[in-house]
Amino acid sequence: MNWKKWFWTLVVLDIAVVMLFAVWLFQPAKPISVPSPKKVKGATFTVYSNKEHLNTVINDYIRKKAKDHPVQYRVWLDDRVYVASKLPVFGRKMDLVVSFIPKVVKGGNVVLESPEISLGDWELPVTYVLRYLRKHAPLPDEVIIDPKVNRVYVALTDIRFGNGYQVSARKIDLAKDEIVFTLTIPTSAKQ
User: Fold this and answer.
1) Which residues pair with 165 in a beta bridge?
2) Per UniProt, what is one Pfam family of this protein (predicted)?
3) Is the pTM of this model over 0.85?
């Protein structure tokens, strides 16, 4: 074979790889259904917290839920909600950082909006990365990624802690370090 045939074979191979990557990247996402808030009957308490304490609780919960998964990540609250992981890219690990602005929605759940995403020094298209995370990240069932509207829904009221405790958000103001939740402890005694 002469060099022209090798050249055209390589061009066709490159085009095929790019097309396969594009098909994988642009495949449609499954429809998202946001659960309705669930109420637990019991004694309720208002809990005031800050970013430092909440960071500890969130990462402990994630560590337990994703302990055996190969993709590990951590979350921290600062001026925004940050999620960081390391992804293998061309044989080396690169930092993937996604940040959101949290918003409390009716019923005590949280929506993470206005995502910003970077891989190393590169800014990435939000929709494609959210699709990737939805497919490959070991997320708890209570975290729903919706790439069509570039948001993440956190169904706090569906999370059950020890003895069935339920948490719902009332206020999240990261700039003032004010985080307020309602903690409901189920009771079985009839009054």
Assistant:
1) 161
2) DUF2140
3) no
